[in-house]
Write a structure and sequence with these properties.
The chain is of the alpha/beta class. It has helices at about 40-60, 60-80, 80-90, 95-115, 155-165, 180-190, 205-215, 230-240, 265-275, 290-305, 325-340, 380, 395-405, 420-430, 460-465; strands at about 1-5, 5-10, 10-15, 20-25, 30-35, 120-125, 130-140, 140-145, 170-175, 200, 220-225, 245-250, 255, 285-290, 345-350, 370, 390-395, 410, 410-415, 435, 450, 450-455, 455, 460, 470-479. The strands form seven sheets. It has a seven-stranded mixed sheet, with helices on both faces. Strands 10-9-8-11-12-23 form a six-stranded mixed sheet, with helices on both faces. The chain has a three-stranded mixed sheet with strand order 1-5-4, with helices on one face. Bound molecules: NADP nicotinamide-adenine-dinucleotide phosphate.
């Protein structure tokens, strides 16, 4: 069985106790590889290495940083299919989408390698003529990056790209369900000649490796993407030493379709963002509010289009949807659908494991649409993180906005309308960090991905995402 090691202080190493954990293919339930299981000792070595490397890397020229990030991006692009093969095997997304994810990761590295040149300082005019206030930005220090399994390469690239461009060194802890594709991504940095200690990877459990990292006194910043529950725990642990924090957490995503919307476009968006990656995206749609007069026509077309999605072997080029990523994820989906049905929801599409020999093993579930839903149901209140969506009719703008905002989360919401006035008003009043108007693709590397309310703190991406790896310094000069 193939084995994968950790990258610490410029070398590939095993855990001191030589323990490994298995990685399962969610399409077949077969354990196909083993990954080194790190602990406190490996975290210590990695953080010490990152700390030693920090001084030199933080003072490296922007040109050197750009060259490294570009060389790594080139290798990621060159090896995209190899990395994507592992990604599909451990996560389950269709191979074409895995290649796409890896290419997007390379793009993020290129973006941050350039954006750092546009982080300008300031000279602030003061009331007297004898002083100047100069503001510069300096790298925060050693960064711990903890990431989830749904986009394990892309989400890591946002953090590694920004941290390295800013002059920080980093210790990454990939998710235990999908550790291999992030390791292969980091291998591109190793092969691109990253200086010793600047990038490190420690694999192992979140409770163990993750918490050692979050509490290590030499780690100055924690950047975490994952569930709100774990985010809160990390925040409390990081508070002990007031570490800088970026938390990109869960969501309960509403979509509002007004009666003047382009219904074909809205249906296309609903299908894409409810079911892509089996609904395992932080911005996957959980609940759709449709204005009463177009509810029936929307629902009919939505079901018609959802039924066209092909679920099957993720390596088959015709496949739209693979399996869910784990037994636990599937269990939650089944539980949420059962809860909804018990409370009176009607399954109008899916609602079960697909039929056929291929689906006997693995974590399969059909794309599922629920009608006659209420806000008491889990699907309408919690993050299902699966291919399940509830659809409900609304009667007025105020009602739709009230329902959409009625959640502790605040990451993303979508609105479909052809009225500029409605679009403007809805975008302003929705209490979410991103609002997609007539589109469901709100993440752009160039723009921030802000998390409001219990969806997080700070954010990845864009110039302001890069700024999260920099500390402000005020230098006051007397002439
Ligand atoms: P998770 O259970 O919170 O795990 C995320 C990462 O945290 C994993 O690497 C995990 O390690 C680690 N971890 C677990 N417990 C920890 C602890 N006590 N201390 C430190 N680290 C710990 O989340 P997930 O199930 O992987 O991902 C799904 C969630 O991520 C969803 O809620 C989704 O909305 C959210 N998400 C948010 C965004 C965004 O940008 N806002 C993007 C993608 C996903 P192990 O794997 O070893 O347990």
């Amino acid at each position: 069985m193939e084995r994968f090691l950790m990258f610490i202080d410029g070398g590939w190493v095993e855990a001191s106790g030589k323990e490994y954990f298995g990685v399962e293919n969610p399409a077949t339930e077969e354990v196909f590889a083993e990954v080194s299981s790190g602990g406190a000792g490996e975290v210590e070595r990695a953080v010490q290495a990152a700390h030693r490397a920090f001084r030199e890397w933080s003072e490296s020229s922007l040109d050197d940083r750009r060259s490294l990030l570009r060389r790594a991006a080139e290798l990621v692009e060159k090896r995209a299919e190899e990395i994507a093969r592992y990604l599909t095997m451990e996560q389950g997304k269709p191979f074409k989408q895995s290649v796409n994810e890896v290419m997007n990761a390379a793009y993020a590295l290129r973006y941050f390698s350039e954006e750092i040149f546009r982080v300008y300082g300031q000279v602030i005019p003061l009331p007297d003529r004898e002083h100047d206030s100069v503001v510069i930005w300096q790298p925060v220090g050693v960064v711990a990056a903890i990431t989830p399994w749904n986009y394990p390469v892309q989400l890591l690239s946002w953090k590694v790209g920004a941290a390295l461009a800013a002059g920080c060194t980093i210790v990454a802890k990939p998710p235990s369900y999908t550790p291999i594709s992030p390791i292969k991504f980091i291998e591109c940095f190793a092969d691109a000649g990253v200086p010793r200690g600047v990038v490190n990877v420690v694999t192992g459990s979140g409770r163990n490796v993750g918490e050692y990292l979050v509490t290590h006194p030499l780690v100055r910043k924690v950047t975490f993407t994952g569930s709100t529950e774990v985010g809160k725990r990390i925040m409390s642990l990081a508070a002990q030493s007031l570490k800088r924090l970026t938390l990109e957490l869960g969501n309960q995503t509403p979509m509002i379709v007004f009666d003047d919307a382009d219904i074909e476009l809205a249906v296309k968006g609903a299908v894409r963002r409810s079911f892509r990656n089996m609904g395992q995206i932080c911005n996957s749609i959980n609940r759709i509010y449709v204005e009463k007069s177009v509810y029936d026509v929307f629902l009919e077309k939505f079901v018609e289009e959802a039924k066209k999605l092909r679920i099957g072997d993720p390596f088959d080029p015709g496949t739209d949807l693979g399996p869910m990523s784990s037994r636990d994820s599937l269990k939650k989906v089944v539980e949420h659908v059962e809860d909804a049905v018990t409370r009176g929801a009607k399954v109008i599409c899916g609602g079960k494991r697909p039929d056929g020999e291929l689906f006997r093993k693995g974590y399969w579930y059909e794309p599922t649409i629920l009608a006659d839903v209420t806000h008491e149901m889990k699907v309408m209140r919690e993050e299902t993180f699966g291919p399940v969506v509830g659809v409900m009719a609304f009667e007025s703008f105020e009602q739709a906005l009230k329902w959409a905002n009625q959640t502790e989360y605040g990451l993303v919401a979508y609105v479909y309308t052809t009225s500029l006035k409605i679009a403007r008003e809805a975008a302003r009043r929705l209490e979410f960090g991103s609002v997609g108007i007539n589109n469901v693709d709100v993440t752009s590397v160039e723009a921030p991905y802000p998390a409001w309310k219990e969806s997080g703190l700070g954010h990845d991406l864009g110039r302001s995402g890069l700024m999260q790896y920099l500390e402000t310094k005020h230098i006051k000069i007397h002439y």
